[in-house]
Amino acid sequence: MTVTTATTAEDAPTPVSVTMTKALNQALRDSLSDDENVLVFGEDVGRLGGVFRVTEGLRKEFGPERVWDSPLAESGIVGTAIGMAMAGMRPVVEMQFDAYAYPAFEQIVSHVAKMRNRTKGKVSLPLTIRIPYAGDIGGVEHHSDSSEAYWCSTPGLTVVTPSNPADAYSLLRDSIASEDPVIFMEPKSRYWMKDELSLPVQTAPMDRAQVVRVGSDVTLLAYGPTVRTALAAAEEGAEHGLAIEVIDLRSLSPFDDETVSASVRKTTRAAIIHEAAQFGGYGAEVAARVTEANFTHLSAPILRITGFDVPYPSPKLEEYFLPTAERILDALESWDWEL
Amino acid sequence: MTIDVPTSRSHRSLPQLQPISFIGADGQPTGVPTDGLTIPSDRTLLGLYQKMVQVRRFEAQVTHLTRQGRLATYPSAAGQEAIEVGATTALAPGDWLFPTYRDSASLLTRGVPVTEILSAFRGDWHCGFDPNEYHTSPAATPLATQTLHATGYAMAAKLKGEDACTLTFLGDGASSEGDTHEAFNFASVWQTPTVFVLANNQYAISTPLREQSNATMLADRAAGYGMPGIRVDGNDIAAVFAAVTAALERARNGEGPTLIECLTYRMESHTNSDDPTKYRDAEEVEHWKQFDPIDRLEKHLRTARILDDATAADITASAEELATSVRDAMNTDAEVDPSELFAYVYANPRANLATQQEKLEAELATAAQP
Fold first, then answer.
1. Strand partners of residue A55
2. Which residues contact B218 (CB under 8 A, 6 or more apart)?
3. Are A91 and A57 contacting, i.e. CB atoms less than 8 angstroms apart?
4. Are the Cβ atoms of B346 and A81 closer than 8 angstroms?
5. How far, in Å, are A82, A180, B141, B225 from residue B138 at the CA level?
6. How far apart are CA A192 and CA A238, in angstroms?
């Protein structure tokens, strides 16, 4: 995929192989360097550098007053981050795993999301809550949840998720700089994905979706871990003469209606792909709003290709649960293409 | 091979059993050991007395207006004036206060205008005042959540090398919430300049303290977090003010947080929609009246010849003046602007909110047509 770099062609450093973890690490480092109010704390983010090593080396570089290990209590982490943001700081906190963010649910939905509105804009909370999410890493129970629907259904939160290293860097920098609180969801299975790029990099604005593969027959809407799956389906579909367009949503809330509608009006068919369960999931909102805005342009109902409506399974069962390229192509075949 | 064990405790293990109290219910010195605290000057006590009289009048007036339907609901702190006024007055202007829904009296003490305090209960906006102007957080409704905000704010002040301390109120019910324990722990581990003022008023809506906690006293919990905990007679404002002042001084000196349990009693119902006859006897309420915080201070001040009839009359008149201003303020309808529904949710504007606002405004325009 293509990315635009902040630097001009002449002085651009030679692109190197960068993992998503490294890109996130560099985004934190650059944010800490640029703004003395940025703080990084959470469980094991200091000495260890986080269980996924996203914060590796930051404590050593910036000291324990900027980057430190907190007691093990997620509500405490988010709740104290709120107080720090009220005092003018820009905390970046880590929830170690998706399901371990749930103890912080009350602080997030009752205060992080509502403080600005509650105070008529007098108190903004510019904090970033990093949540490694989704599965496909062979994790035991509680280590593979996709919790995006909870956050997206809460007004006041901004929810973004990168699918590649360049966006990981750019979206995290933008999230930390945002006056609004951001739930920053990191797809665990893509942490080790590499791209050739030079940092720093500025990709599309943080509230915009990106067309990552152009096609004319159908639009696949994907985000985070499922972008790679959608691209694989597009690749395979092409072999069968199907021109699949893939959109990486990037921003789950707000939703980029403009980019998505333009694509859907062109292809007239769309499917949304996510790992989370289908019922009441994020795909339901996407299908509904895209249908409402484009009904007369559609030649088929919008499909949701998702995890089943069951709890996330054990490692040996996750291959049956997760949406695959094959499942996507099978689902597309269910449409009556003669319509 | 041996395992390292501590040879001493960082703080004395448990608070003294008898609550610290300077002025007894009869207005006389109690003789209770005061753990190094000193009684405030009579001049300070007179100022606190005046504020308590005003706060009590305020609570009575607002409760009355709520019964008349001018406010949606109101949780009164009647009977707890010594805690509200004593703790809040001890704060420096640059300190931050993190109150709960029952702490309107502390907002009044902090100087927040009446209409701005009451907007939440009147129903025109969740928080009616600018927190930055009064160094006071919006009153938290979800129990104990604000204890973590107070801890975080204090941590930021400490990291920035600023002088600000934070003080947060919580109740006996809230002491069971997980956030309370996380806040105690974070504050103590980080040694933040935070004072936790626990108003133990014996009831969480209807649930009595004995079904809330099996600890000998709630202040005992501080020991488990490695911070000092003390218990004071929460109806003796001299004790509350002295304890909070000392805790703030410790905090400002970099000695970390303190838990202060203030024993008191909720004289009114939880809110106006509560029915306290279902869970407590009238005799119990009567029993607590003899420990009234204002009566005892009045006795003390009159004995000390600091308060005479003329001054008392002036104070009563100032409280009546306040009540009149509350009535006047609440007897006018609050103006609300529907477009404000959308105005403050995000700093970065959103297209979907703009669309919804347009729809609402079109609806309103249609409805306004003759």
1. none
2. B172, B175, B198, B200, B231, B261
3. no
4. no
5. 13, 18, 9, 27
6. 27
Domain(s) labelled CATH 3.40.50.920 in chain A stretch across 210-333
Domain boundaries, chain B: 42-273+281-336, 338-370
Residue A301 CA to residue A297 CA, distance in Å, equals 11
Question: Considering Cα of A21, then A27, then A28, then A30, what sign does the dihedral take?
Answer: positive
Indicate which of B148, B189, B339 best probes the interface with A, i.e. most A CBs within 10 Å of its own CB.
B148
Q: What is the mean pLDDT of chain A?
A: 95
Diameter of chain B measured on Cα atoms: 92
Residues on chain A touching B183 (C-beta within 8 angstroms): 76, 79-80
CB B24 within 8 A of CB B13: no
**Contact between residue A220 and residue A247 where contact means Cβ atoms under 8 Å apart:** yes
B26 shares contact with chain A (CB less than 8 Å): no
pTM higher than 0.90 for the full model? yes
The CATH number of A16-197 is: 3.40.50.970
For residue B342, give how far its alpha carbon lies from the nearest alpha carbon of chain A (Å): 9
Task: State in Å, rounded, how far the first CA of chain B is from the last one.
Answer: 92
**Can you tell me the distance from the alpha carbon of A73 to that of B187, in angstroms, rounded to the nearest whole number?**
13
Chain A residues in contact with B346 (beta carbon < 8 A): 116, 156, 158, 180
The residue in chain A having the minimum alpha-carbon distance to the alpha carbon of residue B133 is A122
Q: Is B148 an interface residue toward A (CB < 8 Å)?
A: yes
Question: Does residue B185 belong to the interface with chain A, where contact is any CB pair within 8 Å?
Answer: yes
Residues of chain B in contact with residue A259, where contact means CB-CB under 8 angstroms, are: none
Q: What is the pLDDT of residues A117-155, one digit of tens each?
A: 999 999 999 999 999 999 999 999 999 999 999 999 999
Indicate whether A181 pLDDT > 90: yes
Q: Where in the sequence of chain A do the CATH 3.40.50.970 domains occur?
A: 16-197
ipTM, 2 decimals? Answer: 0.96
Q: What is the pLDDT of residue A1?
A: 46
Instruction: Give the nearest partner residue to A119 out of B138, B185, B351, using CB atoms.
Output: B138
**pLDDT confidence bin for A10, thresholds 50/70/90:** low
Task: Give first-to-last CA distance, chain A, whole Å.
Answer: 33
Domain formed by A210-333, architecture: 3-Layer(aba) Sandwich (3.40)
Tokens 């920053």 map to which residue? A184
Q: Which CATH number fits domain B42-273+281-336: 3.40.50.970, 3.40.50.261, 3.30.830.10, 2.120.10.30?
A: 3.40.50.970
Judge whether B270 counts as a catalytic residue: yes
